[in-house]
Every structure is written in C-alpha cells, then in structure tokens.
From TrEMBL:
This is Hydroxyethylthiazole kinase. GO terms for molecular function: hydroxyethylthiazole kinase activity. Pathway: Cofactor biosynthesis; thiamine diphosphate biosynthesis; 4-methyl-5-(2-phosphoethyl)-thiazole from 5-(2-hydroxyethyl)-4-methylthiazole: step 1/1. Catalyzes the phosphorylation of the hydroxyl group of 4-methyl-5-beta-hydroxyethylthiazole (THZ). CDD domains: THZ_kinase. Belongs to the Thz kinase family. The lineage of its organism: Bacteria, Bacillati, Actinomycetota, Actinomycetes, Kineosporiales. It comes from Kineosporia succinea.
Length: 262
C-alpha cells in the first residue's frame, strides 16, 4: 500500500517554500548534455546551482553546498575518481547528496562498480533512478535500453524498499507514477506527462531538484516526494499549452517558476 501525494498538498508546498526561502547553493556533477536544463530547473525553484567537474573546485563546492547531486552520466567527461571525491567531500561535511545511477544495469561495468563503491563508502541521502536502474542497484535482475527503463515503476517498488533499508537512503523510482520510499513508507506521486520522457535531461533534473529540496534541512522523504510532485505538476500544466516537446521543455521551466513564485 502507498500514500498518494501531489500538488497542492501542504506536504509539498511547504517543502517548496523552504527552498525558495533558503535559496541554497546546490552543486552537481552531471553530463554536459543535461547540465543546462538541470541548472535552469534548480534556478526555477529558487535555489542556486553550480555544476562542473573542475578538480580544484569539486571538494570546496561539495563541502559548501546545501545539497549535492551526482549523476553517473558525468563520466562522459569526468573520471570515476572525481565523482568519488565529490561524494567523499559531501559525506565528510555532512552535506546531503543524491545519487542518480544512470546506466546501472545496462551492461556498463564502470557504472555498476562506481555505484556499488559510492553506496558502500559514502552513502547518499537519496537515490533517484528509473525502474531498471533501481532494480539493478538493489541486486535484482533488470536491464536497461541505454538510459531507458525496461521495467515499470510499480515493478521496482519492492526492491526500492529493500535498497532503502540496506543503504539508509530515501529511494525514488521514476515512471508514469513516481514512487518514493524510506524502506517502510511508500509514497506515490501521480501526474507529470509523457513528454518528460522526450526531453533530454528531464529525469536527470529530478536528481538536481531533490538535492535542492534536501538542502534546507527538510526531512529526506518529504523533500524527495516534494521535488517529484512539483515537477509532475509543472509538467502537467506545461502540456496544456505546449505545441510539442520543444515548447513543452520551456513551459516546464515557466511553470516551475510560477509554482515557486520567484
């Protein structure tokens, strides 16, 4: 059984108000294709993004930030050791951080090995991925088609709970309905729109949003649920007027900024 939460539940709106009120610094390592959208979504909810893998800046930024997100697709340009360094710095500083296990379970050993190392050595506050990634990360049998899931979010919920209990992290599974769990409670977040899967970086941006919502100190389950619910609401509103996926992407940013009131 799961609880269902969506905008404008106070559970969500109060978490968003905490972000806009704090305007936290949020640091991320992600791939260059999605960095712009990630940064703009963080800005649209009132937080301040810093993105990039400059080796001299990673430790200071991960230490100073209110929240950090690490997307394994950053390995397009950044070394696995640099991602480890960011996670270590966040962990040692007590900075809440988010793992986005892109391509785990897709037959890319370097991604699988790095994810396992990060979970063991520097446990994240939250983990956000598609169903196949979460199943694989939890030790189940799953495969991905590149960065796309071959499983449904509903199928991933039991193993998401196992992963949450094992790591102590809140685990979020993306899909037509998103599911978020702390290992005991499961929250369903409906809404969104199918065009989110046609915009490069929309899923990756959820990791950035979760980091932004974690930064003010909001309870991790609540922060993760709220980030998903705010994006789902913005996407649903954007789809009402967008002509196609291009205008939809821009409209999602518009709607996020309108929800946050920045």
């Amino acid at each position: 059984m799961s609880t269902q939460i969506r905008w404008p539940d106070p559970y969500v709106t109060q978490a968003l108000e905490a972000v806009t009120g704090a305007s936290p610094l949020v640091f991320g390592l992600t791939n260059y294709i999605t960095a712009g959208l990630n940064a703009n979504m963080v800005l649209a909810v009132g937080a301040s993004p810093a993105i990039g893998g400059n080796p001299a800046a990673v430790k200071p930024l991960a230490t100073a930030a209110g929240g950090v997100w690490i997307n394994l697709a950053a390995m397009v340009t950044d070394s696995p050791e640099l991602l480890r360094e960011a996670a270590r710095a966040a962990h040692e500083a007590g900075t809440r951080w988010v793992l986005d296990p892109v391509t785990v379970g897709a037959g890319i050993p370097v991604s699988d090995d790095l994810a396992a190392d990060l979970l063991r050595d520097t446990p994240p506050t939250a983990i956000r991925g598609n169903a196949s990634e979460i199943i694989a990360l939890a030790g189940g049998l799953a495969s991905s088609k590149g960065v796309d899931s071959t499983a449904t979010s509903e199928e991933a919920v039991p193993l998401a709970k196992v992963l949450a209990r094992r790591t102590g992290a809140v685990v979020a599974v993306s899909g037509p309905t998103d599911y978020v769990t702390d290992g005991t409670e499961v929250v369903a977040v409906p809404g969104g729109h199918r065009w989110l899967t046609r915009v490069t970086g929309a899923g990756c941006s959820l990791g950035a949003l979760v980091a932004a919502f974690l930064a003010p100190g909001t309870d991790p389950l609540r922060a993760t649920v709220a980030a998903h619910a705010v994006l789902a609401e913005a996407a649903g509103r954007a789809a009402e007027t967008a002509r196609g996926t291009g205008t939809f992407a821009a409209s999602v940013l518009d709607e996020l900024s309108l929800l946050s009131g920045i």
